[in-house]
Amino acid sequence: MMENSRRRFIKIAGITAAGFGLKPVTDVLASGGAPKKASPIGDTSAGNKALTAKRWAMIIDVKKMAHEETIHQCVEACHKLHNIPKLDNKRHEIKWIWEEEFKHAFPGQHHEHMSEEIQHAPFLVLCNHCENPPCVRACPTKATFQREDGIVLMDFHRCIGCRFCMAACPYGSRSFNFRDPRPFIEEVQEKFPTRMKGVVEKCNFCAERLAEGKQPACVEASNGALIFGDLNDENSDVRKVLKSNYVIRRKPGLGTGPQVYYMV
Amino acid sequence: MPNKKQIYDRDKVAIGLAIFVALISFPFWFNMGKASPAPEIKLSDKAKAAKQCIAPTAYMRAEHMAILDLWRDTVVRDAKRVYSTNDGLTFNMSLSTGENSCMGCHVTKADFCDKCHNYASVRPYCWDCHIAPKENK
Asked: Å from A78 to nearest chain B CA?
């Protein structure tokens, strides 16, 4: 009897001690981690100059794009502004926006009797800022995320360079920095950070320019061949064009819901 | 009856102990009196004229890293890029882009950032990507 009660006493004592020890841990877990300290004063806002939308979208007028010049201007404007390095090795190449042939941009939709014009027209391709972006689902650190206005953005601070997003993206819109990009940037723009070795990058729909009330750099450089606007606003330019023109999207069958439309 | 508390090889043990203590305290006496003084931050003329940063100096000194961390999330995730103080001043919530950003006022990275960071042996990786303003030499 004596033996038995000692065992019981130790058991109860043990459970009690564990209970007391667990309390602080469960408290912290219940509160959702330590709260982030806010600034003592002041407030943050988007500013009154910023362009806002419910759903940003872009329309590419392929006929107007047919001039090589225009396409180059768009690509140059973007790559210069965002400090994109020029790497000659194809496997290290970084690109946010570039030129592609129809059969590569729209695989499965081309046939042998297609008009020469379309077959060899330069198609401008970039991140589609999908409605249902597979890259966002693949990212293990939430470095890639979708903003409320539909822009699929990257937080370079958080990218660990796992490249899951590159595997997930059906459009090849993402590039990986296999090398330190700094030495390969021709003319460094102080206004935009560079990237470092080991992160993925892609088009950001010029989120930093929208915040200043400017249209994306490629749109500005396109002489009207690119139209950018709010898809949820019935009176926006993009909606007007979509109403009166036939447009196609890249790989629509995948269900990603690309927000870059091609007017052929 | 011999003393039970006697240490065997007392002399050798004492010498060994002395060497051990000398070695383990080496960093302390070797660096004695050589401590470098805490660095003085050199403020740019613009920062001096402004008198106060976005918050009181003491707060900035202690919490600037937390503010920067919070700001980068606010800017990237919530697209909020303008910070306004209660006094009606507005700031561009950016480390290194333009007049109204951090480096727009604290123009010299070497004098303002690096001095303390080097002293405290902290190596933030801001400048792996962000571009410090060119310094006038």
From this structure: 18
